[in-house]
Amino acid sequence: MFEAAEVGHKLSKGRYKRIEPRLRAELLDAQYDLYKNSGFSVILLISGVRGAGKGETVNLLNEWMDPRHIYTHAFDDPSDEERERPPMWRFWRALPPKGRIGILFGSWYTAPIIDRVFKRTNAKDLMRSVEEVNRFERMLADDGALILKFWFHLSQKRQKKRLKALESDPNTRWRVTGRDWDFFKVYDRFYRISEDTLRQTSTADAPWIVVEGTDPKYRAATVGKTLLDALRKRLQAPAGRAGTKIRAAPIVRPVDKRHILCKMDLELKLDKKRYEAQLERLQRRLALAARHPRFRDHNVVCLFEGMDAAGKGGAIRRITAALDARLYHTIPIAAPTDEERAQPYLWRFWRRLPRKGRFTLYDRSWYGRVLVERIEGFCTEADWMRAYAEINDFEEQLARDGAVIAKFWLQISKEEQYRRFKERAKTRFKRFKITPEDWRNREKWDAYQVAAADMIERTSTAHAPWVLVESNDKYHARVKILSALVHGIESALEAR
Amino acid sequence: MFEAAEVGHKLSKGRYKRIEPRLRAELLDAQYDLYKNSGFSVILLISGVRGAGKGETVNLLNEWMDPRHIYTHAFDDPSDEERERPPMWRFWRALPPKGRIGILFGSWYTAPIIDRVFKRTNAKDLMRSVEEVNRFERMLADDGALILKFWFHLSQKRQKKRLKALESDPNTRWRVTGRDWDFFKVYDRFYRISEDTLRQTSTADAPWIVVEGTDPKYRAATVGKTLLDALRKRLQAPAGRAGTKIRAAPIVRPVDKRHILCKMDLELKLDKKRYEAQLERLQRRLALAARHPRFRDHNVVCLFEGMDAAGKGGAIRRITAALDARLYHTIPIAAPTDEERAQPYLWRFWRRLPRKGRFTLYDRSWYGRVLVERIEGFCTEADWMRAYAEINDFEEQLARDGAVIAKFWLQISKEEQYRRFKERAKTRFKRFKITPEDWRNREKWDAYQVAAADMIERTSTAHAPWVLVESNDKYHARVKILSALVHGIESALEAR
Known about the structure:
20 helices, alpha/beta, homodimer, five-stranded parallel sheet
């Protein structure tokens, strides 16, 4: 891939002067159309060899276009807040909203390549990173993002020349550091590993564009022209992937109408005395686990899904009752804000990820995508179908970062729900919990059950299995939940 | 203040059992009304002596009410991202949006009191903190927040008893740390300093409520009842401070219609040759300053205000051209998002504060409050009148944290603006910059000028002076701006 960027591409001063004003004007027009259209975001990755003009190009893009709608982010060493989250968190934080251009200086490629170059990882690690990156970029593309990945290349000879030139000028000497020469020394290895990585991650959705970095005018015109063409093509396309028409999702019904939830024994019960004894014991174990020194390397992500009145709130409170209020955060999932709507679906969950040593309890969760959004047609079939894999990726990243993930599906019978609705309407301090929407959702009971069964089947993974909780009896349900949670945390603490 | 909380307040089990269900139901009702009303946020500070039941109370509030609309935040040691911002940043981050309850565990009182107790600061430092806190809370209250500050008190004897009791139970032993005994040793000093601080910060807008922490039932009922009464009173009040009717702001005109902007000599010019020479020199100095090792202790907050077409964008680009794209961020100020509208006015600026060693360039800024919002009646007169002081406080905090603040007012004549509008409409790549709104704003020229003059007069401070820039000639303007900026940064670097 890189040979083509060692042929000595150049643009004469005269030609550049002819091209530049028009390119600039058209880029600005396209940027303005993007801003008005606001249907998708543009993500430019700026990567490559040191000294190949990355910084200059980014400056130029900011100069040519309206810098107010460009988000330039440089990724240095992660902060401690970033280190306490999965590695991708810092990139999620920096994604541009729809209608804007994000220029990412350094990216999700930097660490995988550099770590491999300096042998901090092995070939298999890199391969896994490549797969993850491909899935991540596919998700962004599916969400409508226009992704262009620029790689600025210089031959080793040129790089040496460039670094020497920078060093000899007192005005630019500061730009060359020991790190630059460290990289220069491993040029061949860096060349090989990055070329491999680029080849494996250059997809139709997120292509790599290798740019020869020798001549500033060639470099600038190439990046500008590539961006302009891609922007225009995308703006002219009939409302593409991002704009697929919203329609009610068809529900796939098994022929015999049986599914995993049908097999649950909702008669399971626990008497009050045993409940109280077990609750106390489990809460004590939970409290102990949360104070374990090794708990600081973990966090707990605990989510609750289930039909209305299934007992999610009550179960959450039996957990929080055992915990110091400093350690947990309960997050109810409601409609997204406008900032959240301008981002990929999972962004709203990434942004709230806790630091280490904390509990986060979600009352409903990212699974809304494949439950309510599927049933109500709030997203397209394509959107919720791809959500299963996206969610699995998300949870895998959490788990690998040390999270204990506990996912509970609280199953009640339709009759029990009716009884609870009626009861709640009577009890003063539970009154507000019943809304007309709850009654409407009840009418779609079967559709929700099927969607839940699909969800459980497709997202029960080794690192984040679903726990199905028979919830007609609250005592049984709460003890089962606490017990699963406590076991999950205890085994994570022992595993290290 | 604390004596009243040493009398041995108690609530019998029977009485508590009679009170609790009703209190709980009513609190939940009030919380739901707050959520529907969404006109204001509720901020509960939980402070006080160790072992006085703060954690238990917070747990109980979460249990009584709907925890999904309560934001509980505990403040431990600041993270590195927090340490690179003014001390108040972490609290701004944690403010609950309107319609929600935020419980802050530890608060803006913690560091000032503790630092004074352990003699890391002197009496004057504490006094300054107290003043700042009072201004901050007044701002929150003016924005509509209901603020209740609970102080949990124990006599020294009781505290000792409590800590001993916790220590002797294997289940609670972990809760007592060496730090608790460190505090116990300085009980008297802590008592005196916190009582003083409380007295000076107990205002009608944000009262302290001292709660005796000995009896859990008394403690819980007191906090619950206090919160309920305050919530109800506020919900029943006719749309109060927060809801003051929006009206066009009256413009105060000096009798002779002269103001500071009238005196500017807009004929000032610079010829192209001298401009280019000076620009280059200043850009080089700027680049050097940004690479200075001590620059890492600072950041630069640079904002541009001025009539449309005054040359803000062009000036910003002459600055960014000298900088590595990794080091700056250009922020255009547009309409707030819905998350921003649910917070005090300055929240949207606090949330985007840069880390150290960075430049942030604002194209328009927080001064929109006293310019466009004042003129267009987007906020009440009371709101923009108080904004002057709030902004001065904000900038002072930035400056004290090491920021170099450069504020530029770009002044052009009305004729020059007309010429530029016409010219822009012709030039293809500047076309989009002229909108019908620009022409409408032009009609309000005089009102904007008066508002700008008021703003400059009221917000030109020692740490953040306005630089008035004669901008009919772009060359003169850009050189003046760069020169002021470079001088500002260089003196900050020398000052240390």
